[in-house]
Write the C-alpha cells for this entry.
Amino acid sequence: MTAAPEFIDPPDVVDTYQHDLVAAIPRARRRRPIRQPADLVTGLGPTIAGANVIMQLANPKVGYGVNESRVDSGNAIKRPIKRGRTTGTFLAVALLGNADDQAYVHREVGRIHQQVYSTAQSPVRYSASDARLQLWVAVCLLKYFIDQYELLYGPLSAREKELVVRMGHPLGTALNVPVSKWPHSYDELIRYWNDEVTRLRIDPPVREELQSLSDLSFLEYRVGRLGTLAHVTLGSFLTYVISGGLPEEVRDLMGWEWTERDARRYRATLAGFRLVDPILGPVVKGMLHLNLLDLRVRRRLGLRVF
C-alpha cells in the first residue's frame, strides 16, 4: 500500500505564490502524479501564458529591458511567431531537454542577453544578463506551470511542491542563474516571492506594450485590417482570460478591474477546461516535444534557433 500524499503547507509563511483561486478548488480524485515539472503541463497553459509575461515584466528592470530592447528578432510585437517558437523551445529544453540542450540554450540566450542593457536615458538601470533578474523570470515561469495544474486539479501536495522546486532549476540555470541561487525549498521560494512582489511596478510605457499584447491590438501593426478584426472580436475575451490568471496585486498594476462576476465566469471557464484537459493536455505537452525536436534538427542542420 502506498502512503497517502502529504498536503500540509509550511505553517510559518503566507503562500502568495499560489493563485488566489486554488485554495477553494478541491483536489481532483483523478489527478496524475507529479514526478517532474513537465507533468504540470495542461491545456490551460496557453491561456495564462500572457499573464505570466505580465508578471515577469512587472519587475521594472525586466519590463524596461523588454520595452527598450534593441534586439528586434525577439520582439513579441514585431516577430510574434518567432517569439512564440523560441519561448516554446526554451521551455521545452528546461523541462525535457538533456544537459547538452540546456548548455546550448544557455550559450545562445546569453549571447542575445548581452545586447540588452540600459542606456543613459533609461528610467532604470538593467542588464538582461543580470542573474537576479533572470531568477525572477525563472520563478515566474515555474509559477506558470504550477498555476495551470493547480487551477484545474487543486493544490499540489507538500511533497509535490518540494519536488517541482528542486527539479525546476533548469528554468533558471538554462539562463544565467547559478544553481546555488535557485530556491532550495518551497518555503524559500515563497519567501523570495513575497519579498519581490513588494518591489513590482508597471510604468506607462511597459503597461501600454502589455496591453497591446493582451488585447491583440499589436496585430494592427503586423497585419492591418485583419489584425484590427482580431483585436475587436477576440481582444476583450483574451484580456479577461489573462486577467484571470494574474495575482490581484499585478492585475491592479495593469489597472484592470476584476469583479465577482468575472471570478464566477472564470471558475466556469476552468470547469470547462477540466473536462477537455485529458485531450488538450497531451497535445500541449506534445508541442513541447516538437519544440525540442525542432531545436535538435536545427542544430544538426546548422540553422539558427534563436
The CA atoms of residues 68 and 121 lie 10 Å apart. The first helix runs from residue 45 to 57. Confidence is low (pLDDT under 50) at residues 1-11.
